[in-house]
Amino acid sequence: MQLFKQNYFELFDIPASFHVDQELLIGRYRDLQSQWHPDRFASGSEQQKLQAVQVSSLLNQAFDTLRTPLVRAGYLLTLKQCDIERVSQQDLGMELLMEQMQLRETLEDLPVDDSALAALDALKERVNSKLQISEQAFAKHLDADAILDAKKSYHELQFLVKLLREIEIGEEQRLDY
Amino acid sequence: MALLKIAEPGGKQAQTIHHLAVGIDLGTTNSLVTASCGGSVETLPDDNGQHLLPSVVQYRDSQPPLVGQKAKAAAIADPKNTIVSVKRLLGKSLADVKNSLQYLPYDFDPARDPRAPAMLTVAGTKDPIQVSADILATLARRAEHCLKGKLEGVVITVPAYFNDAQRQQTKEAAGLAGLKVLRLLNEPTAAAVAYGLDSKEQGNVIIFDLGGGTFDVSLLSLQKGVFQVLATGGDTNLGGDDFDRMLVAWIRAQLPPAQQADLSLQGALLGVANDAKHALSNAESVTVQFGAWSGVLDNTQFATLCADLIADTIKTCRRVLRDAKLSKTDIDQIVLVGGSTRMPVIRQAVAEFFGREPLTSIDPDKVVAIGAGIQADVLVGNKSPDNYLLLDVNPLSLGIETMGELVEKIIPRNTTIPVARAQEFTTFKDGQTVMSLHVVQGERELVSDCRSLARFELRGIPPMVAGAAKIRVTFQVDADGLLSVSAEELSTGMIAEIQVKPSFGLNSGSIEQMLKSSQEHAKADMEARAIREGQLEATQLIEALANARVQDGDLLTEADAKSIDAAIGALREAMPAGSSNRIHHLTEELNRISGDFAGRRMDLHIGKALRGSSIESTAESNSTK
Predict the structure, then answer these.
(1) Residue B531 pLDDT
(2) Which end of chain B is more exposed for a tag (fewer CB within 10 A), N or C?
(3) Model pTM?
(4) More reliable by pLDDT, B559 or A61
(5) What pairs with residue B400 in β-bridges?
């Protein structure tokens, strides 16, 4: 089936770039789901149902991949035959590692009660602005086909996203969510 | 809203429907069936004009079972044969049932696999699937009578928090009742369908569902006819019953001291509390009376009494907002579902938190069934398919056990379904040809904290050095939220594959496989239990000996003490890891070695007792037996 041979950008008929028009993506995704969702084949044959589950699953997988910036970045690198699972210290550079360690220590040193909330907010803002810079750098490197640089930005994004998640968990614990 | 106009059963309107399909709300306490009648979806009544069917089945000797009101009336006189609240039993093991539910009057069939318990009744052994099937069949017969035709399919609602086994068994119950399931629909999604289509809402909707015993919150996005569930959360042990218990505690505190702790009053007090709670839904204050005592309760006081419960429901709302990465101000509508949302204290708390009044135009007891009826009408093909689409999520994470009894999540919760996700694993030992996979469901890190769905083995992996084999495990969740798992070995191109449907019920395609593997695991489970029992016995003996030595250590020779210590050491070493046989053997050994010591103690204490020693020391000798 043709759908399965296309990459996720082709599937939704959008340009293969890091900047994705979210409205357009959501619209295309919903159009295709309207066509392929198993609910459309609830009274159909077993074969139709099976195909619907497969295509609909593919659409969900593709949508989840393109919707989230980090996952999208990884996918773009994979399309460029870059192995994102393999990471060495040289890929990252000492400077990046030191900075990430520092940010992490800042988080760990915060008091465990809700007096840390303001500091958490500040840290979140700092990480978020770093995240934006890394995203822009990633897009620039990818457009220039500088795959190794793009890969470094990607790993930096990975660190930052993970750190953001930990900040959020820290917030949840202190707010007793 | 015109939605609840009741059509005459079997009236002219029904005949214009080409495909007959119904929605069924298979509830814990009551069930409902709905169908589209001339443009609107309505609940269908029985011959006596009753819409709610109590979810109760009474089994009788050589007669067909009674379902509904008559069965409910028999529950007190014939508790063993009258199954109530069977929904709570669906998908549960005997241990689950005994741990989580209060006293049940049924006799469970000892011959059944304890993972799929069944009740002994005068009409034979009945499992929760069969009981649910009897309720579904009753509703289907009612619908066919009302609609004057054969049903082509049904949509059955399930709580968003239902796990895989519970969904699977619901579907099997429908199959057993001879019904074709068009879709299992999450209850909150059904509620949104009921409101969404009628009022053409766009935006983000919170479904706040507080029933008698469970609580669910879902956040849905409605856009251009597409319903997308963004996040769900809830508490399976929070409901209207808890509010009753708070009221009981309040009443008890004001009763005469003799009555305060009298447990026999609990049933009567719950009744009084429940009445008061209902009265507060229509009045600002109510006089509560019990025996000679009476007191006045208003909604403000009630809110204070139940502050913790109310706070818990709001906390879940926060959590769901967070999961969906939205804030309170992003919410456009709030839909209330479940009888407990009639409480003004709940309505007020919800309105306050979200800063807007919830929708209440559809009866909260019927809204789920109405949504199911609408969806059934669409799925069977009566409505144009372009109208709308439901995109649901899986409410609980699905994963696999890895080294150290940890869970590797493969499909995180709130992922849109259907979904297929693959993950690669490798072998742990050189030449390993078998890999055993344990599929679990839940949010916790440890396997023991999650629900075990299935275990299966992948055999025939070509022998290679550790880490060389590549095993891809694929999880597929279909649109009903049901999981199937497959595994294949990739590195050599040799593919071994197995499908597992995690179900212990009837008529599943993989029943043979399940039976085979359950027999294999029965042995392992028995050994595990024997080990635990052996460990317990050994611990008790070691502790008893330690106590005895504190009291009568002077009766022990140095050589005896040494050999006892050695035996205790060997037993301690064997306890955590050894086989049940070895633990048992070493326990016997310790018993034998310490036999002389025990004998000398016995003589001493009997001697003391015969000489008329104090009560204290006699008691002491009893305690060391």
Answers:
(1) 74
(2) C
(3) 0.69
(4) A61
(5) B408, B439
Structure tokens at B224: 């251009």
For residue B476, give the chain A residue with the closest CA: A57
Nearest-angstrom CA–CA distance, B553 and B201: 81
Counting other chains too, the contacts that A172-177 makes at CB distance below 8 Å and 24 or more residues apart are A172/B322, A173/A112, A174/A112, A174/A113, A174/A114, A174/A116, A174/A117, A174/A120, A175/A114, A175/A117, A176/B315, A177/B315, A177/B318, A177/B319, A177/B322
Lowest average pLDDT, out of A61-75, A96-110, B528-542, goes to B528-542
Quick check: bond before B418 cis, omega within 30? Answer: yes
Record: contact B389-A63, CB cut-off 8 A? no
> Is 70 exceeded by the pLDDT of residue A164?
yes
Give CA separation, B436 vs B59, B128, B455, B518, B610, in Å.
42, 30, 7, 14, 63
What span, in angstroms and rounded, lies between the C-alpha atoms of B35 and B370? Answer: 8
For residue B557, give the 3-state DSSP assignment.
coil
Tokens of B445: 């890190």
Nearest to A53 among B153, B315, B418 (CB): B418
Tell me, yes or no, if A132 comes closer than 8 A to chain B by beta carbon: no
Pairwise CA distance, residues B493 & B335, whole Å: 52
Beta bridge partners of B331: B204
> Cβ of A43 and B380 within 8 Å?
yes
Contact B473, B400 (CB under 8 A): yes
Q: CA B368, CA B386: separation in Å to the nearest integer? A: 22
3-state DSSP assignment of residue B184: strand
- Per residue in A143-153, pLDDT (tens digit) is 999 999 999 99
Distance from the Cα of A123 to chain B's closest Cα (Å) equals: 19
- The alpha carbon torsion through B16, B19, B20, B26 (nearest 10 deg) reads -130
| Backbone region of residue B114 per phi and psi (left: phi > 0; alpha: psi in -120 to 50; beta: other values) | alpha
SS3 B620: helix
pLDDT tens digit sequence for A6-26: 999 999 999 999 999 998 998
Question: For residues B35 and B23, is the Cβ–Cβ distance under 8 A?
Answer: yes
Contacts of B315 in chain A (CB under 8 A): 176-177
Output the six-digit token pair for B42: 């309505």
* Residue A19 to residue B567: CA distance in whole angstroms: 71
Cβ atoms A43, B379 nearer than 8 A: yes
Closest by CA position to B552, among listed B612, B611, B615, B607? B607
Q: Which of helix, strand or coil describes residue B131? A: helix
Cα B425 from chain centroid (whole Å): 31
- Angle subtended at Cα B399 by Cα B456 and Cα B210, rounded to the nearest 5 degrees: 120
Q: Judge: A30–B223 Cβ closer than 8 Å, yes or no.
A: yes
Q: Is residue B80 annotated as part of the catalytic site, yes or no?
A: no
Any A CB within 8 A of B415 CB:
yes
Which residues of chain B, if any, have pLDDT below 50?
1-17, 197-199, 500-522, 609-625
B179-195 pLDDT, tens digit each = 999 999 988 889 988 88
Contact B298, B279 (CB under 8 A): no
Residue type at B613 in one-letter notation: S
> CA–CA separation, B267 vs B50, rounded Å?
27
pLDDT the model gives residue B9: 41
Is the distance from CB of B330 to CB of B323 less than 8 angstroms? no
Which chain A residues are within 8 Å of B322, Cβ to Cβ? 168, 172, 177
DSSP state of B338: S
Backbone angles phi, psi at B614, to 5 degrees: -65, 155
B141 touches A at CB < 8 Å: no
Of the candidates B595, B575, B594, B576, the one whose C-alpha atom is nearest the C-alpha of residue B585 is: B575
Residue B70 CB burial class (10 angstroms; 0-12, 13-18, ≥19): exposed
